[in-house]
Specification:
The protein is mostly helical and about 375 residues long. It contains 15 helices and eight strands.
């Protein structure tokens, strides 16, 4: 049977038959801008027509995919550039790019995209675990590969996402090392004269993330009303510092404790004195926690020159700054505060995230349930 042709510039869709003459699918063909004939395939005529229209539209924009020859490495590069860049936070993009470049492409990059199988994917995870990578890192690899292959399915380049059939390794529990209440008090006593004392108070009292603290501006703080608005986070990217939306994509309002208000008032006075000392060298960015000249503060400098020496001076474990956020949540939950309020304070996207992270704390809390039943009945 003659191929069914379409108008000039619309490509051609025709039936695919097996040796017995039975229709097993449909194929669309078109000429790309480079003059080469290219093909798409679908199970139904409608699907083939849709894929053909999409492929021709991509070709008009300079995006030509030859699914038969396209390798995993080539597709990952195109996926990162066309689908990921500028659609996620810069640090998220850099994380996907690093995982692709360091872990996925060396192992799977030369394999044809259409020939990738669950065996390949499973072998990658096993090899990375045997090489000493943590299960959490391998899960990041799985997430990256799964997202890329899912986009390839949507683009009609492959019929299924082979990563969907492979289980990623179960991560160990989150590495949470909160301070006790007594340790927290001791830390703040030792840190009282430190330049970033108010930052530690906000981390412990309000549970702010590191980037949220370093991206905080005075315009976000209402000391009279005792509130603070989390509107941005400071990210350290390969091209320098960048202000971005908070992790959940939206801000939140926080009621400040009395001690947090006092610490911020004192911090503002100290900052004004610094400003006068450096004079014209001061760069006014309205930051609450800048460098001594008003510019954005590098997290590594904050940790190495301030936070870690204070922990050592106080005789406390070598925790991360992020563990002050965990300390805040743990103290509140142990005090019996509802997880929903803790979720809103921390800015988690859903309460399930809060419950998952702090399940070990909640499990230790019987909440006086037995006593309540005795009293009620």
């Amino acid at each position: 049977m003659a191929k069914k042709k379409r108008g000039n510039g619309q490509g051609t869709v025709y039936k695919r038959r097996n040796k017995d003459g039975k229709v097993i699918g449909y194929r669309g063909s078109y000429f790309a801008p480079d003059g080469k004939r290219r093909y798409v395939s679908g199970k139904t005529k409608t699907e083939a027509q849709r894929l053909l229209r999409q492929a021709m539209a991509d070709a008009d924009r300079g995006l030509v995919f030859d699914a038969g020859k396209l390798t995993v490495g080539e597709y990952l590069d195109r996926w990162l550039e066309d689908s990921v860049r500028d659609t996620v936070r810069q640090r998220t993009y850099e994380r996907y790019e690093q995982i692709s470049r360091v872990h996925i492409k060396p192992a799977l990059g030369r394999i044809k995209l259409a020939a990738l199988t669950p065996v390949h994917v499973r072998g990658l995870y096993r090899e990375r675990l045997d090489a000493g990578l943590s299960s959490r890192t391998v899960r990041y690899i799985h997430t990256t590969l799964h997202k890329a292959l899912e986009a390839a399915v949507v683009d009609g380049l492959i019929p299924r996402n082979v990563a969907s059939t492979v289980k990623a390794p179960c991560p160990r529990g989150p590495d949470i090392r909160p301070l006790s209440q007594e340790q927290s008090r001791k830390f703040l006593e030792v840190a009282r004269e430190d330049r970033f004392y108010a930052l530690y108070v906000l981390a412990l009292h309000c549970g702010l993330r590191e980037g949220e603290l370093l991206g905080l501006k005075w315009e976000d703080v209402d000391l009279e009303g005792g509130t603070l608005q989390v509107r941005r986070t400071l990210s350290e990217t390969r091209t320098g510092h960048k202000f971005e939306l908070p992790k959940n994509g939206k801000g939140r309002s926080i009621k400040l404790s009395r001690r947090a208000v006092e610490a911020l008032r004192s911090h503002r006075r100290r900052q004004n004195e610094e400003r006068l000392r450096v004079g014209s060298l001061w760069q006014d960015n309205d930051l609450v926690f800048p460098t001594t000249t008003g510019t954005t503060m590098r997290a590594t400098n904050l940790l190495g020159r301030h936070f870690k020496p204070l922990l050592e001076k106080a005789g406390l474990p070598a925790i991360r700054l992020h563990d002050l956020r965990h300390t805040c949540a743990t103290i509140l939950l142990v005090a019996g505060k509802h997880p929903k309020y803790v979720q809103e304070l921390l800015g988690h996207a859903s309460i399930s995230i809060t419950l998952d992270i702090y399940s070990h704390v909640i499990e230790r809390m019987d909440g006086g349930l037995a006593e309540a039943m005795d009293e009620a009945l």
